[in-house]
Design goal:
The chain has 772 residues and is of the alpha+beta class. It has 28 helices and 15 strands. The strands form five sheets. It has a five-stranded antiparallel sheet, with no helix packed on it. A four-stranded antiparallel sheet has the order 5-10-14-13, with no helix packed on it. The protein is elongated. It starts with 21 loop residues before the first helix and ends in an 8-residue tail after the last helix. The relative contact order is 0.12.
Length: 772
């Protein structure tokens, strides 16, 4: 790092030398050297990123809270691809069965799909390790975006090195992959393309920014979109005010511009289609303050839902790095520490830098910070288009770290270009003061190796002062000292500080039972649960249930997605259920009302037989009650006697009223083959009038049935489950979940793979530029 500072200043263009001249060869070598030095920043930061993630590849680490939910979806999808070669469309054990559309849309990123298919081709059984690799790839994409953004905005290679090396420590998915990482992992790349567009490099960069924005929404929460729109609006306004709007490049008929526009439109429509249909026939539960139709939140929920840190909390976490995670939300959702040096460099940039890129990105970060406190400005932003769909303004601090690091890199560049010896000495003294303040605001004598971090900054301050004084004596007539070694000292101190903070983060992460993690992380064929139970029977299922109990013990929310990961059908959901099929919810509501008309023992016996709790989930029933209207279905479920001994069906033009009772079983039936999207039964109907095969798995309009190879109508038994009519004798019955419209999973996977390939192709062709 001896030649970290560039030896040339940007200026006018020299006369173009003749081809083949020594000057051309010299310029080529210099350009190659600069390119290698810049690429070295990216390579070094990627190595640092891998080193920061090594502890997560241990056998005792498994993500918690929302990250655990994301991993469970990854595991379930990968298991189905591994054994059947197809993406699953149905989650058979998620409460009473439901489509996977919503959870797949918000959990799997484009790189997840690529990793899943590559892992299946390589026959990798360890899904947990594969998930960690996918997350590392996402972190690498974030780092590439920061590198490209730094090259587009900064003049000094030292500032680019500082930005990349600092960014390597930022990603963290231990508890909260959405809020603490994925909310910003593609933001630097989007900003890079926007900068390229506003600096006149072509209209295609605007459409590429839009394509990357669509990619960022795949595997993320849909209500991140208003925040992205707000950030892009701020960047747009600043650049238009400073440089004007390059509207001519937008309407350029160049093929690359038209192709980029067409791809953006196709991908945007595809995403809007998936997000608008992912909750079809579903009901959201436990959504406080959000309109069930428009999904908008009230102003009160917008301002208070995610909580807000106190000033003391922010100072303590931002300066001392302790605690490593904030708890003003309900869980460990975010970390805010970016090092002590950026705390000093950001004011330097604010006082001296006036370039458009800094004002745009730094201004967006400042406004996000202002928005997060929940004051008057937050009330005004609530009326920004689509912003009323968002309700987590107190959880924006991980996203704010991106513009803060960019501002700090600008500050380092300003010090290198404009700083005098006295400025550096003053900065070193301030660094010592801030380091000492870190010990005062800490909540323990030496949390997270705080004492060592302070020692690092004390040593760095003395090195910087010594180098500055040495350069002042060596070059007494210079307008500004060269400050050789200043950038190296700053970067090394920042890397050591953030390394120690990463060690603190690792120490704060609870250790999972390694034996259970080893078993729970592997994939095995999905098995059919013939009864609903209170706990799983298989060894992998018991290991995963042990992980869930361990997660609960460490204040981690556990969700309904765990059932398909564990592989058992619950009698009643014990984990948090945010969404449920609307037909199943109506059935459960009717059972609640039924409790007012029947004694608890009768109600428990009927419910257990209908849903298959300690009883077969599939049975043959001869007794039938055809409702003549929708309200009669509700009445029958709430008041009709012995509904477990007959099947209650909705009205149909071909069915007449038939009220028969029996014991609830009219023959033998057993499952022959089972997968997420299909199941085959062998049935022997003993009743001479036939019987209904009732499968206690949620009904959906896209389920199809074949009886002995012939298509048969699937009816909603009890308004919630699946049923087909069988004539007397032996039959083969097959249920298949087949979409009548475009498959959301296939569309999302296709978009994801195309976006990943486009990213690799585009990055390989990028020409790295720095502003003059």
């Amino acid at each position: 790092m001896a030649r970290l500072l560039p030896g040339r200043q940007a200026g006018g263009h020299p006369p173009k030398p003749s081809p083949g001249s020594a000057a051309v060869r010299t310029l080529s070598l210099v350009g190659l050297y600069d390119t290698l030095q810049l690429s070295g920043a990216l390579a070094a930061s990627l190595v640092l990123l891998v080193a920061c993630n090594l502890w997560r590849f241990s056998s005792s680490f498994i993500p918690l809270h929302d990250s655990l939910q994301i991993y469970q979806i990854f595991h379930f999808v990968y298991r189905n691809v591994f054994y059947s070669g197809t993406l699953p469309e149905w989650m058979p054990y998620n409460v009473y069965g439901m489509p996977i559309d919503f959870y797949r849309l918000v959990s799997l990123t484009p790189l997840d799909y690529v990793t899943i298919y590559i892992g299946a081709m390589l026959r990798i059984h360890d899904a947990l390790m594969l998930f960690k690799v996918a997350m590392l790839l996402e972190e690498s994409v974030f780092l590439v975006g920061m590198y490209l953004l730094g090259c587009a905005l900064l003049r000094r290679k030292a500032a680019i090195w500082f930005l990349c090396m600092s960014a390597a420590f930022i990603p963290d998915y231990t508890y909260q992959a959405w809020w603490n990482f994925r909310i910003y992992y593609l933001v630097p790349l989007i900003l890079y393309y926007l900068v390229c567009f506003f600096e006149g490099r072509g209209g295609q960069f605007l459409w590429i920014a839009g394509i990357v924005t669509v990619a960022s929404m795949i595997g993320n929460l849909p209500y991140f979109a208003p925040i992205y729109l707000f950030v892009f609006f701020v960047v747009f306004v600043v650049y238009v005010m400073r440089n004007g709007f390059p509207w001519r490049s937008m309407i350029n008929r160049a093929p690359v511009n038209l192709v980029a526009l067409a791809i953006f439109i196709v991908f945007a429509i595809g995403y809007l289609y998936t997000v608008s249909h992912c909750l079809d026939e579903m009901v959201q539960l436990g959504v406080v303050g959000r309109d069930p139709v428009s999904h908008r939140v009230t102003l009160g929920q917008f301002l208070t839902y995610a909580g807000h840190p106190s000033l003391a909390q922010m100072v303590q976490m931002g300066i001392a790095g302790s605690p490593v995670y904030g708890r003003w939300t309900s869980h460990y959702d975010q970390s805010v520490y970016i090092g002590l040096i950026p705390v000093l460099l950001i004011p330097c940039s604010a006082a001296t830098v006036r370039r458009a890129g800094y004002l745009a990105i730094g201004g967006a970060g400042a406004l996000l910070l202002w928005l997060s406190v929940g004051g008057i400005f937050s009330r005004m932003v609530y009326f920004f288009p689509t912003m009323s769909l968002f309700r987590h303004i107190g959880a924006l601090y991980p996203l704010i770290k991106v513009p803060l690091l960019v501002a700090a890199a600008y500050g380092l560049e300003a010090v290198l270009e404009r700083g005098r010896s006295r400025h550096v000495v003053i900065g070193a003294v301030l660094l010592l003061v801030v380091a000492d303040l870190a010990t005062l605001v800490s909540d323990s004598p030496a949390p997270g190796f705080l004492g060592v971090r302070v020692g690092v900054y004390v040593a760095a301050a003395f090195v910087v002062v010594g180098l500055s004084l040495y350069q002042s004596r060596k070059y007494p007539g210079a307008e500004r000292p060269r400050l050789v070694g200043l950038a190296q000292a700053v970067i090394i101190a920042q890397v050591i500080d953030m390394t120690l903070f990463t060690v603190s983060l690792c120490a704060a992460c609870p250790t999972a039972p390694a034996a259970a993690v080893s078993i729970a992380g592997r994939v095995e064929p999905i098995s059919y649960a013939d009864q609903r139970t209170l706990s799983p029977a298989s060894a992998p299922g018991r290991a995963r249930e042990e992980i869930m109990n361990w997660a609960r013990a460490h204040a981690s929310e556990v969700y309904q997605t765990a059932y398909d990961w564990i592989g058992f059908a619950p009698a009643r959901p014990a984990y948090f259920v945010p969404i449920i099929p609307e037909r199943v919810q109506a059935f459960l509501n009717a059972m609640e009302q039924r409790s007012q008309s029947f004694d608890p023992a009768t109600l428990q016996r009927e419910y257990a037989r209908i849903v298959g709790y300690r009883a077969p989930r599939v049975r043959l029933v001869e007794g039938t009650d055809f409702a003549t209207a929708g309200d009669q279905m509700k009445w029958a479920l709430e008041h009709a006697p012995a509904i477990d001994q007959k099947v209650v069906l909705p009205p149909s033009l071909t069915d007449g009223p038939r009220f028969l009772t029996g014991d609830g079983y009219a023959g033998d039936v057993q499952a022959d083959q089972f997968s997420a999207d299909s199941i085959e039964f062998g049935a022997n109907v003993a009743d001479p009038t036939g019987a209904w095969l009732v499968y206690a798995d949620a009904y959906h309009a896209d389920w199809r049935a074949q009886v002995d190879g012939a298509e048969t109508e699937v009816r909603p038994a009890y308004g919630a489950f699946k049923a087909v009519h069988l004539p007397p004798g032996s039959h083969e019955v097959q249920f298949n979940f087949r979409r009548g419209r475009i498959t959301i999973g296939g569309l999302t996977a296709l978009m994801s793979i195309a976006l990943t390939l486009a990213f690799v192709f585009q990055v390989s062709r990028l020409e790295v530029r720095r502003p003059p």
